[in-house]
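Protein 1 of 2
SEQ + STRUCT:
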Amino acid sequence: MRIKFVCDRYCGVAQGDVRQLASAAGIKLSDSNYDAVVIIGGDGSFLNHALDYKKPVLPIEGVHRGHLKSVGMLTEHKFSDLPMLLHRLSERQFKVVPEPVLELKHSGNVYRSIGDFYVERIDTKEAVRYKAVIKDGTNKTVSYAISNGFIITTPIGSTGYFSYLDTLEHHRPKRIEGIGFAHILPSTVKDMVNGKNVVYKVRRTFSMNAKIDVFLERNTAYLFGIPKRNSGIRLTDGRISARAINGGLKKIII
């Protein structure tokens, strides 16, 4: 079994320790010809790096230092579990589960994320005005909104920013089954399903086959959630399209 290790700069783990543990487990390390990828860090490390590789990925929580610690929802194992995990990998005692990837198109550019994309106002006091059209099989949901922005998420990303309302109420975020769409601090929302008015919801979940188109009335918003990019990009036109690609990521489960 050949493994590529990716250690986030904040993971608190020395490369020498990883090599020593891998050697003891009979694991060969390789940066070019490998069977799987082990990412050591936090949720952000997994979200930022997992799409770089076409091989199955195993996320492991690194060693936290200091008083503040992020809540890891995507890393099911801690670094202290690494000897056991490497043994399981060497014996091929694991399964690979496909995860969806979110593909977003804007102004001729295509972006992909295993988590979420979100659009928010920035450098302006104006709220974001938009119409979201979600086609899901025979159903068509239209949401007119004035808010600070909106979020489009995969099941993996639903445990993050999408669940900020749960976090505020001290509830543990839950993984959704499908694509999530949420308004950020809305002041006005009007929802319609198949042409009929329905009860307003801050968050809605659609099937993995749903297609989302958002039309902004004003280009006063920025797009965030692009992997490895700390800042957002200003939206140069008023349309965003998003859909899920099933099986775009392979995650190792042990």
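Protein 2 of 2
SEQ + STRUCT:
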Amino acid sequence: MASLSNVFKAYDVRGLVPDELNAVQFQAIGVAVARFTGAPTILVARDMRESGVALAAAFALGARSEGADVIDLGLASTDLLYFAAGSLDAPGAMFTASHNPARYNGLKLCQAGARPIGRDTGLAEIQAIAEALLEAWSADGPPEPDPAALGALDHRSVLDAYADHVRSFVDTRVLRPLTVVADTANGMGGLVAPKVFEGLPFKVEILFPELDGNFPNHPADPIQPENLVDLQKRVLASGADVGLAFDGDADRVFLVDEHAEPVSGSLTTALVATSMLDKHPGSTVLYNCICSRVVPEVIAEKGGVGVRTKVGHSFIKQVMADTGAVFGGEHSGHYYFRDNYRADSGIIAAMLVLELLSVTGKPLSELLAPFKRYAASGEINTVVDDPAGVVELMAAEVEAAGGALGTADRLDGLTVDRGDWWYNLRPSNTEPLLRLNVEAPDEASCASRVAEVQETIARLLDA
């Protein structure tokens, strides 16, 4: 079937291989990206998933059949691909399914300069072109490319240049000996983190550094507490100052403090925001709509200008371009930097935290203590038949109450402010899930409010 609607998401392509994605589809997508961008050169990179080799090659062939030259960066993290798209000023295609299990793969795209390509900025057009090609190819398959018309294929590494770029965000002269444990979960952090930390005064231990897209030790999804257990044990056993947990394509990072306590993406956003506002006083800082209230509070206390955004990298990058924001953070562990071509990078965020630990001489738990003002549920995911429909039912219920159930906004899904607590309910952009986030003054009230919202959802579904 020519339809790609099941795999083209709000800001990327993602699905099961070969059930939902295959090489022929990616050859068509490669043609579509070349036509849409009109670029003379396109960058291609992939994570450690076994299926990525064939899928990336098919995409490259499609792009080259349109006359575009392709630079194959080989194995890379997503943030390295964005750096290459910025520094080489060419569109980029990153083959990855991020934190998803081994059978998944996908594609993240950007324009030259690492400008985002999402549904509203080109992804829908690319989908339409690819679907038309697949329909035309349905009888005989893709045509044999004319060798004389193929663009060139070059292989290049930018890993060393990227490591230098990451280190440029901190003053390496102030760094002091710290013990760091990094769990790369057999993902691309195992390639990037050792190169970035090379030559710095840190004692670094990498857990599961071997690149293996089957994830033999645990899933590369650090937002799930069970996937932090190995890191937590090692932090305590080694007396480490900090633990770093990267996802599969290593563009996200989650922190574990010296007591092995996980640090939420919101608290990390607040902490990194303080560093960036010290370096760039009065700047604009972005935070997404499921971040803790502590984030805008800290931004304002540091003299910055906070701007709330939708969830998702393509949305945030566009707002960053529009506002000139110096930094942006997401509760999910994505951290965006203006001077990183407005792209996200977990390893840059980690370096800024290590710089703060070095300069202040304080343990991470002490640095974070002033930010622990509220209790959060974390993201609660529920499989439902129609996630968007549930959001609409809840929105109608809140509106009909005329303010008795709080004030709502629709920036992303439904956010309801209930005074001393709030919640956000939204459909996942990448999976068939309903996502709920709740924040309240303390753990007991947070648990109570989660139950209240869930009971309402259940009642609406049963009606």
